[in-house]
Design brief:
It contains 15 helices and 15 strands. The radius of gyration is 23 Å and the shape is globular. The chain folds into two domains: about 160 residues, Aspartate Aminotransferase, domain 1 (Alpha-Beta Complex), CATH 3.90.1150; about 280 residues, Aspartate Aminotransferase, domain 2, CATH 3.40.640. The strands form three sheets. The protein has a seven-stranded mixed sheet, with helices on both faces. Strands 1-2-3-13 form a four-stranded mixed sheet. It is about 40% helix and about 15% strand.
């Protein structure tokens, strides 16, 4: 008797996914009703779904497909490393050639004396590692009580327990989970569009810096060990801080012996035209930088914590300490090869220069959307742009949640062959860094069509739009 194959009458991918997968940030009702979109292939900046519909991916995967998909030389480099050495223990005193070489390449591009690299599995674990290293460093300096960390509202620092507790973005905190509260403090988001009434950019910057000073006075500089900030708050709404804000916040940190940690998981590796945004764009050399995403352009998982020689020297000074943090896949040789090949391609094709050229077109074209009745503000830099949708442009009041404007716009754009990311009332774009100026103009023109169509739908549905 022949036994039937376990794959006989196997259901389609859509059904399998719906029956078995829990996705990050699953919204259970819509997922159980509709399931997932199935993406089958990608090439360059484009994706195709299981119905062979083609999309321009203005989301860039998830801020990460910087050099574009489907590069044969990436596949060949990854395959060659798999054949040569797929894995080696990275703990204590074992390394591989890709591990060491990629660390050196990252250090060569990092600002100041950030010459040390601790590899992680993703951005979330890089933030987790930065938090632990901050406490380790302060303890080594004789300050074991200097363990608190300061972050900002509307920040996103990953989805580990520590990372999500440090971040504080609308929609991330749900009542079914518990978050760390002790030792984590949050300041006002540097979102000028939502600044207190009557404050111009300079006054708002003064307010934010003074708020930090006041927090330090209240909590005590002897308790605060680190300040963590995305140079541009990405998932929180592409929030570009007021001019001078980050430099002034770093100066406060220096005066109070607080480590400056910049989360460049999104802005690192070219998103706004620099290897890193911290010094090149904002004039700050931090003590630590967390990164991931563009490091391998999404081809394989990899994150990193980059930190200064000064931090290393303090931790290593007596030669007896153990830094007991890391991961089985820290410095995974195949992932590191993907990182090395990504950097090689970016250098060879001068992709940073393309970000400056096409990104300038993208920024300028995007501002045309600000004339639309539901668009309160268009903001961002180069290859990261956000459209904030409102009910009333004068008062900046939002539409009710049930209007679902961000999701409606994303769905209509998808019908037109464009993928944009809905985050509540926002629509965010972070396209591959290979996007051309003409593609940038098409993206904005297509998004404009989607916004106009959704605005008409909202009016018909009885939502007031002024």
């Amino acid at each position: 008797m022949t036994t039937a194959s376990p794959r006989a009458n196997f259901p389609g991918i859509h059904a399998l996914d719906q029956a078995h997968v829990l996705h990050p940030w699953t919204n259970f009702g819509p997922f159980e009703a509709e399931g997932s979109s199935v993406i089958e292939r990608g090439l360059g900046s484009h994706l195709w779904d299981d119905r062979n519909r083609k999309y321009f991916d203005a989301v860039g995967g998830l801020w990460c497909t910087n050099i574009g998909l489907g590069r044969k030389e990436m596949a060949e480099a990854i395959a060659a490393q798999v054949e040569k050495l797929a894995f080696a223990n990275p703990f204590v005193d074992v390394t591989t050639e890709p591990h060491a070489r990629l660390a050196a390449e990252i250090a060569a591009r990092a600002p100041g004396d950030l010459n040390r690299v601790h590899f992680t599995t993703c951005g979330s674990t890089a933030v987790d590692s930065a938090y632990r290293m901050m406490q380790f460093y302060q303890a080594c300096r004789g300050n074991p009580g200097k363990t608190d960390i300061v972050a900002r509202n509307q920040s996103y620092h990953g989805s580990t327990h520590v990372g999500q507790s440090i971040g504080k973005r609308d929609g991330d905190r749900v009542p079914q989970f518990r978050y760390m509260r002790d030792g984590i403090h949050h300041l006002t988001s540097p979102n000028l569009y939502r600044a207190p009434a009557g404050m111009d950019e300079a006054a708002f910057c003064d307010f934010l810096v003074q708020e930090f000073e006041d927090l330090i006075a209240e909590v005590g500089a002897d308790r605060i060990g680190g300040f963590i900030a995305e140079p541009i708050q990405a998932s929180g709404g592409v929030i570009v801080p007021p001019r001078g804000y980050l430099k002034r916040m770093a100066e406060v940190c220096r005066r109070h012996d607080i480590l400056v940690i910049f989360d460049e998981v999104v802005t690192g590796f070219g998103r706004i035209g620099h290897w890193f945004a911290s010094e090149a764009e904002f004039g700050v050399v931090p003590d630590m930088i967390t990164c991931a995403k563009g490091l391998t352009s999404g081809y394989l998982p990899l994150g990193a914590l980059i930190f200064s020689d000064r931090v290393w020297d303090v931790m290593a000074e007596d030669g007896q300490r153990w830094f007991t943090s890391g991961f089985t896949y820290s410095g995974h040789p195949v992932s590191c090869v993907a990182g090395l090949k990504t950097l090689e391609i970016m250098e060879r094709e001068d992709i940073l220069a393309n970000v400056m050229r096409a990104g300038a077109v993208f920024e300028e074209a995007a501002q045309s959307l600000a004339d639309l009745p539901t668009v309160g503000q268009v903001r961002g830099k180069k290859m990261m742009i956000c459209v904030e949708n409102v009910a009333d442009k004068a008062t900046r009041v939002l539409l009710p949640d049930e209007a679902n404007i961000g999701k409606r716009i994303a769905a209509r754009a998808g019908e037109l062959g464009l993928l944009v990311r809905p985050i509540g009332h926002l629509n965010v774009m972070s396209p591959p860094l290979i996007m051309t100026p003409s593609e940038a103009e098409w993206v904005i023109e297509t998004l404009g069509r989607a916004i106009r169509a959704v605005t008409d739908d909202l009016v018909r549905d009885g939502y007031g739009v002024n």
